[in-house]
Amino acid sequence: MLEELKSFGKNARLFLVSTSIYSFSTGIFYLVFNIYIVEGLHYSEYFLGVLLSASSFAAALFSLPAGIIGDRIGRKPCLIGGTTATAVSMGLLITVKSQAILVLANALLGFSITLTYVSFAPFMMENTSQKERMYLFSVNGTLSTLGYTAGAFIGGRLPSFFVTELPESLRATLLISVILSCAAVVPLLFLTEKRKEAFFSRRIVKSTSLMKKFLLTQVLFGFGAGLIVPFFNVFFRVKLHVPIQMIGNIFAVGSITTGIVTFFAAPIASKWGKVRSIVATELGSLPFLLMIAYSPYLYMVAAGYIAREALMNMGGPIVSAFMMEQVKEEERATINGIVSGGWNGSWAVSNIVAGALMSRAMYETPFVITCILYGVSSLLYYTFFASLERTHEMGRGQNPLL
Questions:
Q1: Are residues 368 and 340 located together in one domain of the fold?
Q2: What percent of the chain has pLDDT over 90?
Q3: Boundary of a domain, candidates 164, 189, 214
Q4: Tell me: the pLDDT tens digits for 318-368?
Q5: How far apart are CA 333 and CA 341, in angstroms?
Q6: What's the pTM value of the predicted model, to 2 decimals?
Q7: Which among 161, 189, 217 is the end of a domain?
């Protein structure tokens, strides 16, 4: 494997450098930003939910157009433009105080992240060799996890390094993440793009019944995730009064654990089957969600958070791989865009719901609702796809790795 890593071309190396810097930046930003809005600017959890939903709504609306834009102007301009716009959006979010402008800035962040996201995989597919590509996605995922982990760990400590009080110390910390995001643009400027035919499919989706099943399960799952995931740092800080440094430690351990268990996703899916693995990880996370919500001790809450992060993120790659296997090649990009849009849309709505509940001190309620939605989503997923997977694998005569 070391030989393959050494053989990475210029494009792969440049992109991995950019990914590492950007992930480190986001690790700092997403640890501190929600706390900055609630404690630094003294806005309610309800406004935080509205603010976060703007990014998700924008991502939902822009999923399909972003792919078409990438086809027309090229992947490299999208990567550079998206990463640059991300840094600008983050800068706006930490310099303005107007609620309306904050919402617009976060909507711009959703657009820019989506533009970058939909261009990454096609660019690497089109501009790397098959041998190189096989390891690139794995290394990119590992570096993203490590970068985010380091960012969360250091981000929890940075506010205490500044002698200023809130919100200035939080804003200074966020400014560092903005500067790092700007630095992540530099390696992308030196990419060389080999334009190929459009990757993003414009054909009419024929597998509509299958698509609707994927869409329904992901909408339910996205709504449940949106109730809790963006609010973990607020829950720790406001409900449990945990120091920011400790929150950074918990997030970092959760990220490291996730990175470790993700390596086991492929062999588990190979042994159990993808559908059973997906359902098992979703259902297995439910007791830990309740542990987070109702445990009286911080160490139990932290353990629940780490276990939940590991289980749910381990199942994520399996979900993507299974969906791509079941749909026709010419439909993959379109169906992926539609399902992603549905997931982001439901996430956005649930952000507002969770913010409204938490602003009324109902911090445990979103966790209960999420458990119900995860349970329903898991049962539907098994009902829809268990027999389909068996038929698919019998036709292929094997149960491949992810």
A1: yes
A2: 57
A3: 189
A4: 787 788 778 776 676 677 778 888 898 999 999 999 999 999 999 999 999
A5: 12
A6: 0.83
A7: 189
Q: Two tokens at 382?
A: 């098994």
Determine the structural domain holding residue 208 and report its residue range.
Answer: 201-402
CATH of the domain at 129: 1.20.1250.20
CA distance 301 to 349: 26
Q: Name, in order, each residue with C-beta under 8 angstroms of 206's C-beta and a sequence gap of 6 or more.
A: 328, 331
What is the DSSP-derived secondary structure letter of residue 7?
A: T
- Per-residue pLDDT tens digits for 213-255: 999 999 999 999 999 999 999 999 999 999 999 999 999 999 8
**Number of separate domains in the chain:** 2
Of 150, 364, 153, the C-alpha closest to 247 is 153
To the nearest 10°, the Cα dihedral for 256, 223, 181, 116? 110
Instruction: State how far the Cα of 260 lies from the Cα of 281, in Å rounded to an integer.
Output: 15
Residues in the chain: 402
**Residue 214 carries which side chain, given as an amino acid letter?**
F
Query: φ, ψ for residue 78 (rounded to 5)?
Result: -65, -40
My answer on whether 227 and 122 are in the same domain is no
